[in-house]
Amino acid sequence: VQLQAFGGGLVQAGGSLRLSCAASGVTFSSYAMGWFRQAPGKEREFVAAINWSAVTYYAGSLKGRFTISRDNAKNTVYLQMNSLKPEDTALYYCAAVYRNYLSDSAREYDYWGQGTQVTVSS
Fold it and tell me: Distance between CA atoms of 12 and 42, rounded to whole angstroms?
């Protein structure tokens, strides 16, 4: 199983980015997917999750600015990030769990991508 995250970059505060995570080696529709992030010196934190049925779950502080979605035909999960703030700066990871499951716990996920860096300048 491989997860490849991409789409990060440098953006000014107030801007937008869309992250993508492409999965291979799996029956993608059988996996719930999540996004997490980790800023320097901080613990990894939950961002959003989406299950088989495209039901979504967000970290409370991010709901309304971030949107998770999936395209099972393309084996890809997305994270649309709007109104970005400097505190959103982090390495963003996608993760997969072989269940129809929404979880905000990193320990619940079976597979992880390598991360893509998002830097928001003020």
Answer: 22
> CA-CA distance, 109 to 122, in Å (whole number)?
33
Q: Give 31's DSSP letter.
A: -
* Bridge partners for 112 per DSSP: 95
Residues of the chain whose pLDDT is less than 70?
Answer: none
- pLDDT for 1 equals 82
94's CB contacts (< 8 A; 6+ apart) are 3, 5, 19, 21, 33, 34, 35, 36, 77, 79, 112, 113
The DSSP letter of residue 63 is B
Pairing relation of β-strands 116-121 and 9-12?
A: parallel
Q: Could you tell me where the DSSP H helices lie in the chain?
A: none
Cα dihedral sign for 13, 78, 43, 1? negative
Place of tokens 């979880």: 103
CA separation for the pair 26, 24 (Å, rounded): 5
